[in-house]
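Let's practice the habit of predicting before peeking. Look at the sequence and jot down your guess about where helices and strands might fall. Then scroll down.
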Amino acid sequence: MAFDRKNAVELTTIATFDNTPTAYIAKGRLEAEGIPCWLKDEHLGQTDWLYNIAVGWIKLQVEAQHAPRAREILATDYSDRVETPDE
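Done guessing? Here is the structure:
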């Protein structure tokens, strides 16, 4: 199958991560808000950690039109909304 440039989506990197679990948490947060997103280079660092440095870490990417909202979501601190066992 040939690559179709007319229907290609422009992706923007909105965050980078040095470990896979943190990257997937951020990805899940965006997906929960209905923003489609992708992780780039997530498997490369698992083969050798030094590859992460070479490629610029794990990149969380969204379509360009979703970038401002996605950055806003990731910048929001929800820690004050978490209930502790004492509550």
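How did you do? The first helix runs from residue 20 to 32.
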